[in-house]
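Trying the structure run again after the queue cleared.
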Amino acid sequence: MNLDQQTLTIRLSTMKDAQALMDIDALVWTERTAPEPMRWTSREAFLRHSPPASQLVAEADGIVCGYVGFRDPTGLPAHSHVCEINIAVHPAHQRKGIGTRLIGAAKAWAAGQGKRKLRLRVLSTNPGAVRFYLKCGFVEEGRLVREYRIGGRETDEIWMAYFLDG
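Done. Tokens:
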């Protein structure tokens, strides 16, 4: 089913979203997409890391199917114009335009918060994600070469950015 056949709502996360978001993390953040798989030890641990309103949630016909999380990278006033993001879409809902809509919503949200730059990190072992971010207007800012050893393979961490002021 594509977006033309379903209703997609993007909204700030709430406490009731915790389990669905934890389930998405368990499916999406694997050795191919993260330095180590994401496994939350409890709902409380998840909520400490991702409190309500720290993510934009995509809900298709009432089902949470993805999110984009955002945070201040350092907490320093000199860094307050930058927002670090991470995005995950449930595998059953990928390739339907939801990720693109989430990135668009994140850009609008960040601009409304006075942010001037979005940044993210992606592993070189995830070329589909790199292509997706490039399609969304992100540029590669840098690369930490052979930053991780995952599954016996040395992997680069790519830093990407989108400048909200053009």
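The first helix runs from residue 18 to 28. Worth checking whether this holds up in the mutant runs.
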